[in-house]
Specification:
Elements (H helix, E strand, L loop, with lengths): L13 E6 L20 E6 L4 H6 L6 H13 L4 E4 L8 H7 L4 E2 L2 H10 L2
Parallel strand pairs: 1-2, 1-3, 3-4
């Protein structure tokens, strides 16, 4: 099934929202694609810095997270997760904005391990 005529690659079923930040992500970190035994697709959330998310708890970040989730959905991923458990702050808004499953809190991420082949 062709999901998007603009797309000529497939196989990235898991989309991962990642902050607009620079730090080393060693194997084992969600931000390092070698941590997974399957292909993943990352989407940086523009303007979502660690400071704005953790220290300021900026509610205006919901919109860039929603935009990033919609981009992942448009690129053909089948489910969305995040690189950080504290993204659960936006779980409801993001989940309501796309038609695919969204699991941003760590307990929901455990489900991926249980159901993924």
């Amino acid at each position: 099934m062709i999901r998007d005529k603009r797309q000529s690659w497939f196989g990235e079923d898991i989309g991962i929202l990642i902050l607009d930040a620079a730090y080393p992500c060693v194997p084992g970190n969600v931000g390092n694609a070698t941590s997974f035994p399957f292909p993943v697709r990352y989407q940086e959330v523009r303007g979502a810095s660690i400071d704005r998310l953790l220290n300021q708890r900026d509610p205006s970040l919901a919109e860039p997270f929603i935009e990033a989730a919609r981009e992942l959905e448009a690129r053909g991923v089948r489910t969305i997760t995040g690189a950080y458990g504290f993204l659960a702050l936006f779980q409801k808004q993001i989940a309501a904005s796309v038609r695919i499953p969204v699991g941003l809190a760590y307990p929901s991420q455990g489900t991926f391990k249980l159901i993924w082949p």
